Amino acid sequence: MRRQRCSPSCCTPARRRRRPVAIAAIDLATHRSLLAPDAVFHSDHGTQYTSTQFRGTLTAAGVRPSMGRVGSCYDNAVAEYFFATLKTEIVTRV
């Protein structure tokens, strides 16, 4: 897959400051064609993820939003365990 360069308008410092980081990340992944057609974005209930603007960005990118239940510490446990194991494996092999 060939990467595309950003257009000057998407990556200017002023534009990066105006947009929340989560929205900028989804826009950049969309621009570089890094999102799978059936992508799911799982997050907590932070204000940056529950905003109307962020939901619109996900919809425009064709990404399905997913949120855990409030107060459930087990919601993200499998992903956290996987990445902790991955980091351990990477560090022990280097």
UniProtKB/TrEMBL annotation:
Gene3D superfamilies: Ribonuclease H-like superfamily/Ribonuclease H. InterPro entries: Integrase_cat-core, RNaseH-like_sf, RNaseH_sf, Transposase_IS3/IS150/IS904. Pfam families: rve. PROSITE patterns: INTEGRASE. Residues 40-94 form the Integrase catalytic domain. Signal peptide: none annotated. It comes from the Bacteria. Transmembrane segments: none annotated. PANTHER family: TRANSPOSASE INSF FOR INSERTION SEQUENCE IS3B-RELATED (PTHR46889), TRANSPOSASE INSO FOR INSERTION SEQUENCE ELEMENT IS911B-RELATED (PTHR46889:SF4). This is DDE-type integrase/transposase/recombinase.
